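job 3f2a | input accepted
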Amino acid sequence: MSHHIIEAQDLHYSYPDGTHVIKGVSFRITHGESVAIVGANGAGKSTLLLHLNGYLRPTQGTLRIGDYPLTKRNLKSVRRTVGMVFQEPDDQLFMPTVFDDVAFGPLNLGLPLTEVEERVINALETVGMPHLRDKPPYKLSGGEKRSAAIAAVLSMSPDILVMDEPTSDLDPRARRRLIELLKTFEHTKIIATHDLDMAVDICERTIVIYEGRITADGSTLELLQDETLLERSGLEKPLGMQSCPVCESNEKKVIKDGLHSTGRRR
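job 3f2a | predicted structure (266 res):
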C-alpha cells in the first residue's frame, strides 16, 4: 500500500527571511503506523507537518507522499491522500454551518450530492456531533471546533491523517474523547504534539526533533523514558511516567514508622 507511505530524504527548509528551520531530516513512515513528532517550541514540528500536505515545499531534499513525489504538479493528488488538521481549528472552519464545513472538501472533489451528504453524516457521527450539523462554527466550544475540523478531514477519506497539537486547549473530557477517536482511525497517523502522555496512548513510534534535526526515532515507550535524551531535546518525561512525590514521601514515612515500631531504630 504505497499510497499510505511518507518518505523524506535529507529534507531542508528555510523561510524567506533566511531562517533555516528544517535541517537534513530523513524518515520513512509506512502504512498503519501511528507516529508522534515531539520537540520543544521552535524545534520545527509545525513547519515539518506543513510539508506533508504540500503547504510548504522543501528548499532542498525530497519528500514522497504515497505514490507521488511532492511537486507543484502533484499537489492535488497529495492533498487527497493526506488529511491535515491544523493547530487552530478556526483556520479550517469558515463556512456558515458545521455541515457546510464538513461538506466543503467532498464537494470540491466533484462527488455526487448524495455521496457528499453520506460522507458528512458519517464524519459527524464519528466525532460525536451530528446534533451540531446546523450550528455556526463560531458558536462552538474549543473542543467542538476541534471535532468539527477533524470531521471535515475525515469526510475526505484520507489515507494519512496529520494533526498539529490536537489536544491543545481541550478540557480533560474532550481530550480523552479525542484520544479514543484517534485510536479508531486505522490508517497512518502522524501527530505533532507537546502532549507526551497522548503520544504514549496513541503512538507506538516517536520522532524527536531538536533545532530542526531528528535527534531520535524509535519506540515511544523507550524514548520517552530516556531522561538524558529528553533533557537534551528540551522535553520532560510524560506525567504518567513520572514518580509521584507525595506517594514517595508516604512510602518513606511508612518504612520509617515500621522501623521505629520494630525497635530497629531509636
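job 3f2a | Residues 238-266 form one domain.
job 3f2a | closed
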